[in-house]
Amino acid sequence: MVALKNLMARIDLQGKTPFLIIVLGAIMRVPLLFSPLTFNSDAWRQADTASIAHHFFVNGYKILYPQIYWGGNGPGYVEAEFQLYTFITSILYFFFGEQYWLGRLVSLVFSILAWFFFYKLAVRALGQTRQAAWALFFLIFSPLYLRYSVAYMPEATVLFFYIAALYYFSVWLNTSSRRDLILASAATALAILVKPTSIHIGLLFALLALDAFGVKVLKRREIWLAMVIALTPGALWYLHARNLYLSYGNTFGLLSGGDSKFGTIDQYFGTHLYTHLVGLDWKWVLGYGYILLFLAGLVMAWRSKSFRLVVLGVFVVGIYYLIVPRYAHEDWGIQYHVYMIPYAALAVGLGVVWVTGSFKGFVRTGILLSSVIVSFGVTATVYRQILLTGEGSLAQCGTVVKEVVPADARIIVSTTSYALDNGIPNNYQEPQIFFYSQRYGWSLPADWHTVEKLVEYRNDGASFFVVYSERLLNSSPAFTEYLDNNSIQVGPGIERGCAIFAFVQPMEQTQP
Question: Taking 80 as the threshold, does the pLDDT of residue 9 lie above it?
């Protein structure tokens, strides 16, 4: 009991309520740790992330050289974010064995640490512990945060550093302490390393500093030092990552080819982009129920300089959405919305101030209770999906491939994704079959299903072709004829979502 009180003192939580909210949020996530690495559109992302952790574990913890399976006949070194999250997970593998729940546990630990920092930030930003507790409650039980707080992905890790940077920068605004500014810069640097999209926090810091000190802040040397600390590690890492792409040809689409997150001119002049961005935040961040409190909080933040962090934070994240709209406005890109969560939570905390000051009795209780109930309905649905969703068909196919295909064989894996999505470069690789089979090779996008590509990859060493889509298998008579004449089907079959073709003819007889 004494140890608990000492912990409470150290983390500066005023009263028991915030601590109990954090404990409840952590306990309810424990069952989710043991779920498979699948959730709707995120299954492939989690498989890629787990692949990198696996390679660290088996290949000597080379943190500068993250590896994936779909690198053809090469080692699979890939242009990626700095792999702090996967490296920590791989270290846990060393002590406890390669168990996927350990990756989820790392995410949960980073989430819990972020919650402590967020509450301290909320107390400073809102000025009242009661409203800060409401903001904390919203943050922890936001549907989107529930989803990514236990995902085998780096989103929870980046949110920890992102929120820590917000906290220390807000302290610096009041104290001008160089220590706090350096800590904010260090946290920002780590956030950018983990996810380069977090760099937008720099614009927020610039707006907050100008708002607090005016243009004269640019004359302060510590500002420029802080900028160097925040940006240099990321610049060095992403330059190195680009060199990995230039050397080995594999990328997650950070700086090099393979993917584009930017939008088109037509998108900006239509309504689809904006309605979908708002709709995703309404559902995933606000859980539908908190929209009134959120809007009321934004109005309060707009009217008072004391709450500039809230309104400027929402504004900057909105700008960030418009820079990466191709991903941000789609359901399969909702991880791009995690940065809105802390600002939405602060706005909800302010919204509670508005409700408690504007209404009394049953009306006030009804507004607050209905907000919680509606949002909890969305959160409960997400919780159930994570808890009850089993391994998908691609994971099962990967397990069969592992049984059928020799360990040293290279495979070609068909995918329904396109190398060019409406003319825009796209990350088409489907890593699940590779990951669960632990086999290496080439990913074949839907728009590359040609005999020429099969022959090219066979010449490079591929000896098996795996396809799970009947449409793609029969995409052209020439493609089907080539497989009929040059391979034997050794898998469960396309009717069961896993056709595995073993090439049998010598290569000199397979030229188209």
Answer: no
- Write down the pLDDT at residue 10: 42
- Report the percent of the chain where pLDDT is more than 70: 95
Q: Assess contact for 509 and 484: CB atoms under 8 A.
A: no
pLDDT of 265 reads 84
Q: Model pTM?
A: 0.93
Could you say which DSSP state residue 464 is in?
A: E
- Both tokens of 235, joined, read 């610049």
Element containing residue 470 per DSSP (H, E): helix 470-473
Which residues face 410 on adjacent strands?
440, 462
DSSP structural state of residue 416: S
Q: Where are the beta strands (DSSP E) in 332-409?
A: none
Q: Which residues contact 30 (CB under 8 A, 6 or more apart)?
A: none
Q: Which residue has the tokens 């236990």?
A: 150
Confidence of residue 505 (pLDDT cuts 50, 70, 90): low
Query: What are the backbone dihedrals phi and psi of residue 487, each rounded to the nearest 5 degrees, phi first?
Result: -155, 165
Length of the chain: 512
Q: What is the pLDDT of residue 422?
A: 78
Tokens of 307: 């709450």
How deeply is 356 buried, as exposed, middle or buried, from its count of CB atoms within 10 A (0-12, 13-18, 19+)?
Answer: middle
CA quadruple 267, 272, 276, 278: dihedral sign: positive
* 399 CB-near residues (< 8 Å, 6+ apart): 436, 437
Work out the pLDDT band at 42, boundaries 50, 70, 90. confident
Q: CA-CA distance, 415 to 505, in Å (whole number)?
A: 24
Long-range contacts of range 468-473, CB-CB < 8 Å, 24 or more positions apart? 468/393, 468/394, 468/397, 468/414, 468/433, 468/494, 468/497, 468/498, 468/499, 469/414, 469/416, 469/494, 470/494, 470/495, 472/414, 472/416, 472/446, 473/414, 473/499
Classified as helix, coil or strand, 422 is: coil
CA distance 103 to 101: 5
Q: What are phi and psi of 500, to 5 degrees?
A: -120, 115
Calculate the alpha carbon distances from 311 to 306, 348, 401, 442 in Å.
Answer: 10, 12, 51, 46
**Based on C-alpha coordinates, what's the Rg of the chain?**
25
Q: How distant, in Å, are the alpha carbons of 2, 309, 479 from that of 350?
A: 34, 12, 61
How does pLDDT run across 82-130, given as a tens digit for each residue?
999 999 999 999 999 999 999 999 999 999 999 999 999 999 999 888 8
If DSSP codes are grouped into helix, strand and coil, which group holds residue 97? coil
Range of lowest pLDDT (87-96, 146-155, 426-435):
426-435
Q: Give bridge partners of residue 412 from the DSSP assignment.
A: 442, 465
Spatial separation of the C-alpha atoms in residues 7 and 369, rounded to whole Å: 31
Q: Return d(Cα 172, Cα 179) in angstroms, integer.
A: 8
Structure-block tokens of residue 390: 């089993």
3-state secondary structure of 167: helix
- Tell me the pLDDT tens digit for each residue of 272-315: 899 999 999 999 999 999 999 999 999 999 999 889 999 999 99
